Amino acid sequence: MSGCSCSHSNTSGATSARYRRILWVALAINLGMFLVEIGAGLHAGSVSLLSDSLDFFGDAANYGVSLWVLGLGVAMRARASLAKAVTMGSFGVFILSMAVANFVEGSVPDAPTMGVVGVIALLANLLVAALLYAYREGDSNMRSVWLCSRNDALGNLAVMLAALGVFGTGSGWPDLIVASLMALLSISAAVQIIRHARQELRTQPVTLGQG
């Protein structure tokens, strides 16, 4: 998962148009799943579902930013990637704090709701990841979009495992562990994107007013 070459920094013509259409589809899917998961997470008392719902919302915002910067220069897109990376990292810290709060309260989430919604979310994210797969080695902005989708699919699998753990143990520990792992995954992806974006910015010509 190292940074990719800056030679893939631009999309044009049919490729750019297709990528833009895919981003719109991804945006719609993520907004819809955000509404589904936040309601289910509150109903089930699951911090991992709530974290996944906020992740869907954050990704929808990321796709919106990606659509905005798609036709701009590499430097501007790299700066947008930095902003998205900071958001991902902040999200990770927020989820860790939620996990600690639920640990203190000792709450136990509803396992069946977690499992059903986890399956639906996984199918949605696999669809988005499949659509974006061809663009996973693009510039930092494209890479950040791909990493978000990949992380979401992995997160959904983790939520399903947490549901099984909660059901089997009658304890909230599996939910808290999964939420913490999802948070660390977001922070790790943020670090990768920041490194890639900084590399792109360093390789750009120093020109006043660039971007």
TrEMBL record:
This is Cation diffusion facilitator family transporter. It holds the Pfam family Cation_efflux. The keyword Transmembrane applies. Residues 23-201 form the Cation efflux protein transmembrane domain. Keywords: Ion transport, Membrane, Transmembrane, Transmembrane helix, Transport, Zinc, Zinc transport. GO terms for cellular component: plasma membrane. The keyword Cell membrane does not apply. It comes from Stutzerimonas balearica DSM 6083. It is found in: Membrane. PANTHER family: CATION EFFLUX PROTEIN/ ZINC TRANSPORTER (PTHR11562), RE54080P-RELATED (PTHR11562:SF17). Signal peptide: none annotated. Gene3D superfamilies: Cation efflux protein transmembrane domain (1.20.1510.10).
